[in-house]
Amino acid sequence: MENQLNSRLNAIEEKLEDLSASQRDVLTFQQAAKYLDFSPSFLYKLTSQGRIPHSKPNGKRIYFDRRELDRWLLQNPVKTQDEIEADALSFTKSGKRS
What we know:
Blueprint: H1 2-23, E1 26-28, H2 29-36, H3 40-48, E2 63-65, H4 66-73, H5 81-94
Antiparallel strand pairs: 1-2
């Protein structure tokens, strides 16, 4: 019984930490990995290749702006089939891309 209570309490604490991280403007490396649902090694690879926006104010610790991460996640949207068909129709009518 006590083990069940401890495990449920740990799960609640973890959820509260996740909620707290999602409301912060600046995230640590570990918080960002959890926020993005990336493994730490994959996130480090993205930072070392300069493929994800991040900051290193003291040259060592890595920080992330949550809003920049959200924008980064939403880049390169994929058009729906309806949007593709509308673009094709517009292109054939005008001879120009939209």
